[in-house]
Amino acid sequence: MPFDNNEIYPYCPFITRSVEVGGLTKSQLIQKLQQYSILMNEYGEKLFTDDKFTTSDKKYSLKTVELTVGDLGFPDGADTEQIFKRAEELGLKLCPLELGPHLRMEYLDQTEGSSSNSLQKQQAPSGSITIASEILSEDDNFPKGFYLRRINGVLWLRGYCADHLHVWNPNDHFIFCQKNTTGKE
Predict the structure, then answer these.
(1) Pairing of strands 129-131, 173-178
(2) For residue 35, how many other CB atoms are within 10 A of its CB?
(3) Is residue 84 a contact partner of residue 168, using CB atoms and an 8 Å limit?
(4) Low-confidence residues of the chain, pLDDT below 50?
(5) CA-based angle 59:60:63, to the nearest 5?
(6) Torsion over CA of 162, 163, 164 and 165, rounded to 10 degrees?
(7) 12: buried, middle or exposed (CB in 10 Å: 19+, 13-18, 0-12)?
(8) Recorded GO terms, molecular function (predicted)?
(9) CA angle, 164 as apex, 163 and 168 as ends, to 5°?
(10) Three-state SS for 1?
């Protein structure tokens, strides 16, 4: 299906943030998250404890872009591979996994998401923002990355699972990094 280039990134509304990342070990990150009363689900904890999740010794700055799947030119939604490929074509890149906890601690005024139990399975929760990052394992039962959420005033850094067939909705929000805006390449 053709799409109008004037309605997709960078010709659509999007949110940018500058986030300082690095300089903390995993255990220091967990301590800081606890200081901010940020909760993690089991998948988030599983990501944190995996050896493939590493942190940088040095601080560096990332410029992020938050947009929807529809803003990438997918009015009917798309799977993760399609989303990541299109973002790359549009000059965006995947985020380091360690961006998740740092962004969560900086983005404390996230809009409240719905906490209703009528959430449909296999969909991103209302008000959530998924951080586009390299997938550590092809195992469908291993978390693919982090997402941010606020429920009943509580901030969450959550991990999520999605297989290669999962289709994200056009209104689902993702965060990517802008290319060549880091102190670390």
Answers:
(1) parallel
(2) 9
(3) no
(4) 1-2, 117-119, 181-185
(5) 145
(6) -90
(7) middle
(8) helicase activity
(9) 85
(10) coil
